[in-house]
Structures are given as structure tokens and as C-alpha cells.
Design a protein that fits this description.
The complex is a heterodimer of chains A (342) and B (302).
Chain A (H helix, E strand, L loop, with lengths): L1 H23 L15 E6 L6 H17 L2 E5 L7 H13 L4 E4 L8 H9 L3 E5 L5 H4 L3 E4 L3 H16 L4 E5 L6 H17 L4 E6 L5 H14 L5 E4 L4 H11 L7 E5 L2 H9 L6 E3 L2 H17 L8 E3 L5 E5 L2 E3 L4 E3 L10
Parallel strand pairs in A: 1-2, 1-3, 3-4, 4-5, 5-13, 6-7, 6-8, 8-9, 9-10
Antiparallel strand pairs in A: 10-14, 11-12, 12-13
Helix pairs in contact in A: 2-11, 3-4, 6-7, 8-9
Chain B lengths: L1 H14 L7 H26 L7 H17 L4 H24 L5 H20 L9 H8 L1 E2 L2 E2 H19 L1 H11 L1 H6 L4 H24 L13 H11 L11 H20 L7 H24 L1
Antiparallel strand pairs in B: 1-2
Helix pairs in contact in B: 1-12, 2-7, 2-10, 2-11, 2-12, 3-4, 3-5, 3-10, 3-11, 4-5, 4-10, 7-8, 8-10, 11-12, 11-13, 12-13
Chain lengths: 342, 302
């Protein structure tokens, strides 16, 4: 028994050691920062590298950098969506004295001290995709890809168009504490009451991040409420789960499925007509706008108090307080879904 | 068998709602419970042997991804069926070796394995779902043989096979002996280490099968599937009357336990309650089952 205990201890120690090593790994430092001369050095960090969504962001960022000219763009970040892996990048970029850092934050609070230190050293800081704590980080602008208001309204409008303005609808969400989903649901309820007073939410279910649960919940919703005309799947797990259940129940075309997810994960359902519209923003445009904002902040042409901002091919976008808004969400349908690979 | 009583009571309670007792719904319940029941059979062996496996949910994700990718590569159906089972068996073999030969407590081994596999599958798939699955693959999870859905058929066969194995074979009796009193078992000449290793391998293979049945039910496979599946499986086994300290319990009980848990999540929606509370109700049942078990043992001990 004692040997067993010792081996167990050794195993735990090894485990801890391994995870500690992982964290201490130094990031590969971007080389672009030195000797750039008059070039503007912009460092953009995703939540994590290597996934389709942030690859699309990078594509947009590079497009903007090329269009604007005279920009030295570094796009780098952690391989896992963890805030403690993001901080070393910020520290090394601060030492290299890049002009602007743009971050999609994995945690709003944990990242803020590092961003604050960068600000204190004279580096401009903006956030995109997911904001930092505005006060504690001192970040200048947040490039907001979609307000809760815009997303909530787009979802309800789409449902009204597909299932009718008097439809009985169900919502399959994420977990009851998920902040984004709850904010969307709040907007949806309010907007429904204003614009489609006869539309009725009959049930809200929470499958958390489990496809099987989202699937069987939707199955059971369809049986329990035979008059349900539409199902909202408002997470990247709930949407395909709900669509799959509607498809397998043979209710394609009878029950509308509307929601938020990446076009790639929903392509099959859009192609066979189970889902008509996937609502999301365009991450290419998000990367594009981020670099435009980064340049304008560095050159002092975008300042607090502005209400509009000219961003290349996106035209004029709205600025509200310290947020630059990408604009209304995008709709992916059978016509355009093949053009997007995220 | 208190679990049977629970099942009848709950079927009565939920059955009062319109549509619940209709054939389509009962059929959906059986199909949705199939992966859980298959996994619970393996977990029964593990727990009867006095062990535990908390890496089952992560192993399910790995095997589901293996099944999906094999199917997508255009491999023949036998490979699509065998590869996830072999993958599961391999994971079980590693767990079993660490437990049996290196003598590390099962909870530590499988705790480590849980994180390693979960991290590994995310790294491997980059979090992407697996879609564009061929029709032959869906036939596994959605097909029928003589009107009986394939998942139900597979689950029934697994229950029968493991029940026979545990009750009618020398290996089965060894499993009970090892779980009841490992020291006594060793003195009787039972190769304790080998029995434990075999139990983990068989359990792993069944997890692979469970993953296959689970994944082939969907049009796209979530790379991060099976979060919390290990606890659900352990709950099914405990509700089914298997002694968590080993040595006692049957596969029949666990199978009904698995069915019971599925009845609860479906039934709550029919009762127009949020299914979110299903884990709480299931947890309460686990407590009830354990208390009932403890009372019975105490009475028997007097």
C-alpha cells in the first residue's frame, strides 16, 4: 500500500510539473518590431491560434494592413484559449515597443493589469471580439463585432419571417449562467413583446455544452409541444443539436430552426434546407476593422467622443462611447455559405 | 431491486402527461439511453471489481472522433465499427496496466487520463466538429433490424453478454471475488492483477462501442462530446444497486438505472419543467439508492 501511495504521489507531482512547464513556455517573439523605421507596428492577438474563426480574423487583418500600407503587422497568440498564455505575448510586445496591441481577451479581468502596463509604457491598446475590463486595462477602444441588441433582434426578425409573427417558439440555450446567451434572451423577449406581441416563447431549455442533450431536448420539445413552429439554437452547440433533431424528426420546413453558430458547422443543415439562415458576424470584417481602428488610434485620428469612423471597404461604421461597432450581424444562407470556411 | 420500483413510479408519474407513453417516445427514450446503458455495463464490471473510471467521458469523446474520422475516410464498415472499439480497449489497457501493474489507485490514474484525453482530443480536432459523414455510418445509429433500432439491439446484446460473463463464467466470479476482498482473492490463487487489467480492457472496448452508437446518431459529431458522461454512467450503476465499494451488483440493475436517468430527462420536458434540473433529480435518486442500500445492508447484518 505504501508503494502504491508513493507512486501516486509521484504521478501527481509529475502531472503538476508538466502543467507548470507548459505555462512557462516563452512565446516566440515577433521579429517585426525592431528596425521598422517609420512603419507602424501593430500586434494583433487572437484568443487562440489555429482555429478557423481566428484564421478568418487574420485574413481580414492582413487585408487591411496591405490596403493601408506602411504597416508592420504581427499576428500571434496562444494555442489554447487561456488568458495566462496571452499575458507573455503582451509583455514581450510591450518590451519591443510596438505601436498598437489589439487583443481578443480570454478573460476580461485577468488580462487587464498586463494591458495597463503596456498603456503605461506608451503602447496603444485596443480590444476586439472579447473586451477587457475597460477601467482596469485602460484600453482605448473595443471593436465590438455585434451588440446583444443587434443579435437578439436579428434572431427574432428571422424567426418571424420564417415561422410567422404569431409562432410559438422554443429556445435551446447554453447554460443558465452563460452571460451572452442570457443577454440575447433578454433582448429577444423585449423585442418580441414590442414588435411581434403574438409570438410566444413556450419553453427555454439549457443543454449546456452537450450536443446529445441539445438533440434529445429538441426531440422532446417537438413531442411535448406539437404546435411549436420554431426553435432558436443560440449557441454553437445548441444550434446544430436542435437542427439535427428537427431534421431527424422529419419536420424540415415545418419547424424553423434559427440560431447562431459558425457557417462551417451548419453547412450541412443549410444545404438540405433544415436551416435557412445562420446568423453571425463576419470575422474577416472584424479583423479588417480592428487594424483600421488600430492605425487610427495610433495616429490620433480616432479619439473618444467620435460617433463615426471611416473604415475602408466597410464604409462608415458607428462609434458608441469607447466602442467601435462592426454593424448589424451577417446572415449566412445557401447562397453565400460556401464562400466561408470558418 | 429498488431501481425497478423507481422506474415504475416515474413511468407512472411522467406517463400521465399526454404523449409520453406513445410508442415513438418510448422508442426515442430507449435509443437515447442506449449509449449510457452500454457504458454502464462496462462500468458495472469496473465498480464490482472495486475500481472506478472517471475518464469514461473523455474516452467517449476520443472514440467518437475516431469513429467519425474513420467513417469519413471512406473505410469499410467493419473498420468503422472496430477502430473505435479498439481505441477504447487501448485506453482501457493503459488505465488497467497503471492500476494493476503499477498499483496506482484507479481514481488517480483515470483522473490523469481524463485530462490527457480531453486535452488531446481538442488539440487533435482543434475543436472542430466532424461533419459530412457517409450514409453508411448513420445506419449504425439510426438503422433498424426487423423493426428494432440498431442502438437498442446493440445495448440489449451488451447487457445480455456482460450479465452472462459476470454470473456464469470463472472470470465473472473472479471479478466479484477481487472486488469483494482482494487479499482473500489473491490467497485463493486468483490472478488479481490480470483480472483487473481485463476488466479495464473490456470496459474500454464497451466505451468504444458506446461512442460508436452515440456518434452515429448525429449528423455532425461534437469533438468535445461526453462532458459529464462519466458521472452519469457511475450514477446509473449506483442507482442500479451496485455497491460502490465493489463485490456486489448486477448488470441488470445498472441497465435499468441508465434507462431511469434517461426517463427523467425526457419526462421533465414532458412535465414542462426545465430539463436543466435533470441532474439534480438524478443526483437525488443516487442518494436515495445509496441510503436504501445502506439500510438493507445494516438490516441484513443484524
Amino acid at each position: 500500500m505504501q508503494t502504491a501511495f508513493r507512486v501516486a504521489l509521484a504521478a501527481i507531482a509529475l502531472f503538476c510539473l508538466m502543467s507548470a512547464c507548459g505555462k512557462r513556455q516563452a512565446p516566440s517573439t515577433g521579429t517585426g518590431a525592431t528596425g521598422a523605421g517609420t512603419k507602424l507596428v501593430i500586434a494583433v492577438m487572437p484568443k487562440l491560434k489555429g482555429i478557423d474563426y481566428f484564421n478568418a480574423v487574420e485574413r481580414g487583418a492582413r487585408e487591411a494592413a496591405q490596403e493601408l500600407g506602411n504597416i508592420d503587422l504581427t499576428y500571434d497568440g496562444p494555442t489554447e484559449g487561456k488568458v495566462d498564455q496571452q499575458i507573455p505575448f503582451i509583455e514581450s510586445w510591450t518590451l519591443q515597443k510596438v505601436n498598437v496591441i489589439a487583443v481578443a481577451c480570454n478573460d476580461p479581468d485577468a488580462i487587464s493589469p498586463a494591458l495597463k502596463r503596456a498603456r503605461d509604457k506608451g503602447v496603444h491598446v485596443i480590444t476586439y471580439d472579447a473586451d477587457a475590463n475597460a477601467e482596469k486595462s485602460g484600453r482605448e477602444f473595443f471593436v465590438n463585432q455585434a451588440t446583444f441588441e443587434d443579435i437578439g433582434r436579428a434572431l427574432v426578425d428571422e424567426m418571424a419571417a420564417q415561422a410567422g409573427e404569431e409562432a410559438k417558439v422554443a429556445i435551446v440555450s447554453s447554460s443558465p449562467t452563460a452571460p451572452n446567451q442570457n443577454a440575447w434572451i433578454a433582448v429577444m423577449k423585449r423585442y418580441m413583446a414590442e414588435k411581434y406581441p403574438k409570438m410566444q416563447i413556450i419553453t427555454i431549455q439549457y443543454p449546456e455544452e452537450d450536443q446529445g442533450r441539445a438533440f434529445s431536448m429538441t426531440q422532446d420539445i417537438l413531442k411535448t409541444y406539437p404546435d411549436v413552429k420554431g426553435v432558436f439554437g443560440i449557441s454553437s452547440v445548441a444550434f446544430p443539436g436542435a437542427a439535427d433533431a428537427v431534421r431527424q424528426a422529419g419536420k424540415r420546413g415545418q419547424v424553423a430552426v434559427v440560431g447562431l453558430s459558425t457557417p462551417k458547422s451548419m453547412r450541412e443543415f443549410v444545404k438540405d434546407g433544415t436551416v435557412k439562415t445562420v446568423i453571425l458576424w463576419n470575422p474577416v470584417d472584424l479583423g479588417y476593422l480592428t487594424v483600421y481602428v488600430a492605425k487610427a488610434v495610433a495616429e490620433g485620428t480616432l479619439k473618444p467622443g467620435a460617433t463615426e469612423f471611416e473604415a475602408g471597404r466597410l464604409g462608415k461604421v458607428k462609434v458608441e462611447g469607447d466602442q467601435v461597432l462592426l454593424g448589424p450581424p451577417m446572415k449566412f444562407t445557401i447562397q453565400n455559405i460556401d464562400q466561408y470556411d470558418f | 431491486m429498488s431501481v425497478g420500483v423507481f422506474l415504475v413510479l416515474l413511468l407512472g408519474y411522467f406517463g400521465a402527461t399526454p404523449g409520453f407513453l406513445r410508442v415513438e417516445n418510448l422508442r426515442d427514450i430507449l435509443i437515447n439511453a442506449a449509449p449510457l446503458i452500454i457504458a454502464a455495463c462496462g462500468m458495472t464490471m469496473v465498480i464490482v471489481a472495486g475500481m472506478i473510471d472517471i475518464s469514461a467521458g473523455s474516452a467517449l469523446a476520443v472514440c467518437a472522433v475516431v469513429a467519425g474520422l474513420t467513417a469519413k475516410s471512406g473505410a469499410a464498415l467493419p473498420f468503422v465499427v472496430l477502430l473505435p472499439i479498439l481505441t477504447g480497449a487501448l485506453i482501457g489497457a493503459v488505465n488497467g496496466w497503471l492500476v494493476a501493474a503499477a498499483r496506482i489507485p484507479a481514481i488517480i490514474v483515470t483522473l490523469g487520463m481524463m485530462s490527457v484525453l480531453r486535452g488531446g482530443v481538442i488539440w487533435w480536432t482543434r475543436g472542430e466538429w466532424i461533419g459530412n459523414l457517409p450514409a453508411s455510418f448513420s445506419a449504425v445509429g439510426r438503422g433498424e433490424v426487423a423493426g428494432v433500432p440498431v442502438p437498442v439491439l446493440v445495448a440489449t446484446s451488451v447487457v445480455l453478454a456482460t450479465a452472462l460473463l459476470l454470473s456464469r463464467t470463472p472470470l465473472g466470479r473472479h471479478v466479484y471475488a477481487v472486488g469483494g476482498n482482494p487479499l482473500a482473492a489473491a490467497r485463493m490463487g486468483i490472478p488479481v492483477g490480470r483480472v483487473l487489467w481485463l476488466v479495464f480492457v473490456m470496459h474500454g472496448a464497451l466505451l468504444g462501442l458506446s461512442a460508436l452508437v452515440y456518434a452515429s446518431r448525429f449528423s455532425v459529431i461534437q469533438s468535445n462530446a461526453g462532458a459529464g458522461f462519466e458521472l452519469l454512467t457511475i450514477s446509473a450503476v449506483v442507482v442500479g444497486g451496485v455497491n460502490i465499494f465493489g463485490g456486489q451488483g448486477t448488470v441488470w440493475g445498472s441497465a435499468i438505472g441508465g434507462l431511469l436517468l434517461q426517463v427523467i430527462s425526457t419526462g421533465l420536458i414532458f412535465r414542462r419543467v426545465s430539463e436543466y434540473w435533470a441532474p439534480s433529480v438524478q443526483g437525488a435518486l443516487v442518494l436515495l439508492a445509496v441510503v436504501a442500500d445502506a439500510l438493507r445492508t445494516r438490516r441484513a447484518g443484524r
